[in-house]
Amino acid sequence: MVPVVELNNGVSMPRLGLGVYKIPDEEVTEAVLTAFEAGYRGVDTATLYGNERGVGTAVAKSGLPRRDVFVATKLWNTDHGRDAALRAFDRSLTELGLDYVDLYLIHWPVPRQDRYVETWRALTELVSDGRVRAVGVSNFQIEHLRRLIDETGVIPAVNQIELHPWLQQPQLRAFHDEHGIVTQAWRPLGNGGERLRRSEVIRTVAHKHGKTPAQVVLRWHLEMGHTAIPKSANPQRIAENIDIFDIEFDEQDIAGFATLESGERLGPHPDDS
Ligand code: NAD
């Protein structure tokens, strides 16, 4: 079983879940069912991904009790503001075909619109209604988090951010730790492929533990206290990415990963969202 982390309102969330960005709706059901068979219980989707329907179909088809599955989705940038946010949530719930969502996130702060505080208040209403178990944000910088906390008094359960060995975000993670916000890594593999293969440090750690580069990177996230949502639609990789709980790092391994930080962002900067 995948270990869980307790969120700031007592809800348990799997520390590793399946990310489904860019998996087409018609393929996502199969990918999520494969992940459930491999032992995953968490799925991360978003309105933007256009595959909430397929994710919901997988939950329904899986035969798993609803309470054993953790479904997260996100509110898109064009849906900021109280009324738009509540309508967007209704649409997501309908697409997913669920009675409730486990985690609902504001996808980006979109500071140009300056409506994220109002949007955040709407999300907290959804928790009171019992239609969402926990609410959080994504791509929020320290100043955005501070405003939410100062103006509403409600601390996000999760901040899902771009995080991988090449972008380790130490200040933001320290802020999360100080406030009991769970750090969730998006693009946890740095997009996989070449970047993983060409790192000497990662290859060395992988070889030492008899694991693949992807596996040791995902283990590194857990060691650092992050949760992660690697994406794959490939059954072999889906299974590979969850087979990481027997790895035990030593200080040398952790020190090796620390040298990889380069401040390189692979996605957009939150201030430009
Ligand atoms: P990722 O780091 O998970 O990389 C995914 C790619 O890595 C795959 O397409 C595949 O090519 C490769 N890969 C997967 N498993 C591998 C393995 N075992 N060995 C080698 N290569 C492997 O990147 P991502 O998909 O961008 O991020 C993961 C998830 O994070 C997304 O699916 C989505 O759910 C979420 N996300 C959120 C945001 C946000 O703004 N909140 C942005 C991007 C992604």
TrEMBL record:
Domain of life, per the record?
Answer: Bacteria
What SUPFAM superfamilies does UniProt report for this protein, alphabetically? NAD(P)-linked oxidoreductase (SSF51430)
**Which InterPro entries does this UniProt record tie to the protein?**
AKR, Aldo/ket_reductase_CS, NAD(P)_OxRdtase_dom_sf, NADP_OxRdtase_dom
Residue ranges occupied by any NADP-dependent oxidoreductase domain in the UniProt entry: 21-256
Q: Name the UniProt key words of this record, in alphabetical order.
A: NADP, Oxidoreductase
| Annotated family | Belongs to the aldo/keto reductase family.
What is this protein's record name? Aldo/keto reductase
